[in-house]
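Structure ticket #2291
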Amino acid sequence: MKIAKINIFNYRLLKSFSLNLREDITLVIGKNNTGKTSLLSVMNKFLNPGMKSKFSYNDLNTDFKKQIETIVISGEIRKEEWVDQMINMKIYIDYDELDNLDNISELILNLDPLDHTLILSFEYFLDYDRYLLLCADYMAFRGSKPQDKGFDFFINRNISYYFRQRIRVLESGNEQNFIDIEDGIVRRIINLEVISAKRDIDNDGNGAEYSRALSRFSSDYYKARSATNTIDISNLQQGLWEADSKFTDAYSKIFKPVIDNIKRFCTYGATEPALHVISNLREDKLLADNTSVIYEQDGHTLPEDYNGLGYLNLFAIIYCIHLKLDAFKRQGAKDIKSADINLLFIEEPEAHTHPQMQYSFIRNIKAMLADESKGINLHTIISTHSSHIVSQSDFDDIKYFYRDFKNNNIIAKNLSELHALYVKQDDSEDEKKEHQRHFQFLRQYLTLDRAELFFADKAVFIEGDTERILMSAMMKKVDFINKEDKIFTPLLSQNISVVEVGAYSHIFTPFFNFLNIKTLIITDIDSVNAGNNACCVSDGMKTSNTSLKYFIKEAFEKLKNLPQSDKILKYDNDSGKWIASSDGNLCIAYQINDAGYHPRSFEDAFIATNYQFIKDNKTVFESLKCRELITEVTPDYYKIAQECITRKTVFATDILYFSDKELSNWNVPNYIKEGLEWLAK
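Resolution: structure written out below.
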C-alpha cells in the first residue's frame, strides 16, 4: 500500500497542485516561495490531530479569497447552483490484493477488481447554509463598519465560524460518490510525523545554562526504546537497582543526624511509619537530568555544545528519525494496530551543515531508513534548498516546484520527465543515441557542478572562464548605468546563476523549458571563411557556433545584423522550434557591430570597446605579448586579440586587477550590456 499522489486546492500558494510520490523517498526542491512550506503545513493541519481547526483566513489562496468575497457580496447564488467552497487535500492510495485491507475494506467504493485506488478527501469547507449566514452577517457588518474595514477584516476574524472540516472517501473513477468518515479511521490508514527545520540546536555554551539538546534527545530516545523492554533496557534497570541499594546504605549514614533529631520530636508507634531516606533512581530522570552527550577528539572529551552547529544538526536529525520511527513502531505494538502508511516529513536537513556533510546525508539516508524501518510501511518526504543534496540524489526521487505567476499557482514537476523531453518516441535510432548522450551529459553536469540551477530565478549561460571571472563586475556596471531607472531591478540583487556550458548551451534547451526560468545565453558569433577557418567577421561566410545555428537559423549576413527583438525566443510546442517572441524567456547575446567594428569574440569586443584602457595598461598586463601592435595608429582589434593575448583567463584577471575601485575605467561590450539589461527586467 502506498500514497501515489497528493492533490491540493486553494491552500496558500497551492491553488491547484498535484504531487506524485515515490515509494520510498520523495525529494522536494525549488527556490523560495514555491510552496514547499505550504505543502508541509496543509498536510500537518489535515493529518495531525493536534492541528485540527488551525486554519485561518490567510491559508486561503489569494484567488480563492477573491472568489469567496465575490460570491458573498453578490449573495445571488441559488441552492441548486451551489458548490461547496473549500480548501481541499486529496490523497490517492494504491493497494493490491497482498496488502492487509482491514482498515480500508469498508471504505472501498469502487468494486472494479482492476481498480485499486482509495481516495481520501480532506476538506475545510463552506456549505450553502453557512454561505447564506455569512452573506447576512456581512451585510449587517457593512451597515455599521468603519470605512477602512472591509470583507477581509470581517472574514479574517470569523472564518472558523462559517468554515468547517470533514473527511470523505471518494469513489475512484466517480468522485461525486462518497462517504463521510471520522478522524480515527484516517489515523489507522495514515500516520504523519514531522521533523521540522527548527530543531532547537545551538552551541552557545554559557556554563550550566548551555543547550543540551542532544542529551534531551537521548532521554527521549530511551523512553521510546524502553517501551519495547529489550534486554539492554533490562540490564540498565538491574544496574540502577543495585546502585539504589548502595546509595540507600550511604544515605542512612549521611542523614542519620537528621533522622535522630526528628525522633526527638516524634514518637513512632508500632503501627506508625518510620522516616527513611532511600535512593530511587529512575532511568528516565537519570537520562534527562544527569546524562551528557560528549565527543572525543585527540584523546580529550568535550561537551556537546563545543561541537559545530552542522554536526549538532546532523546528530539531531538522526536522533529525530529514530524517535519518529520508534513512534511508528510503538503504534503497532501490543493491542494498537499500526497505520497502513507511515509518512515522515523531514524539512531542510541541510541547516548549518557544510557541503560534504550534505553529500553524506543524502547518500546515506536511504540506507538508514531502509534498515531502521523494517516492519513498517514508510514514505519519506524531504524538502531542501541544498544544491549539494540535489546533486547527489537520484533524478527519479526529485520533484521540482516552480511558481506559475500567470495562473497564480505552484507546479510540481518530476525530474524523471526530463528523459522524455530529450529522447522522444518518434526519434530515429541515430537521433535517440545522440539525444540520450545529451541527456546523460546534462545529468552528469548537474550532478557534478550546477544543481544550483534548480534554485535560481534566472540564469546566465556563458562559454567559459573569461566571462565567468568578469560577470559579477559587468553586472555591477550595468546596475550602475541603470541606477536612475526606477523600474530596473539591480542584477546583483537578484537570484541569478551563472553557468559555464562551453559550446553546449543548445543541449540545455529541454532543461530551459523544464525549469521555466528566464535565461540569457552569452556566446560568440565565431565567424569562419569558406574553408571553415576562423576569421574576422568582415571576412566571414558563416558561423561555426553550434548554439547560434541551433537557435537562430538565419544566413550569416542576416545573423550579423539581427536586432535584439529577434534574439528573444520562446519554444513553440507545435513546431518544436525556438521562435522570436517579445514574451520569450530565452535571449541569445552575441557580438554586434559597434561603432563600425564587428567583433568575433569577447576579447576583441572588449578591446574595441576599451582600447584606451588596454593601451594605458599594455605594459603591465601579464596576459599580453606583441605589445607593439597596441599603438596610437588605427588598431586592428581582431589581430590584437588573436596575437597579443596569451591566455584568456589571465586577460580577464588583468582587467579586474587594473580596474579602479568603481570599475569606471572600462565599459561592458554592448552585446553583453543589452543581454544583461533584458535579463534584469
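Closing remark: The longest strand covers residues 2-11.
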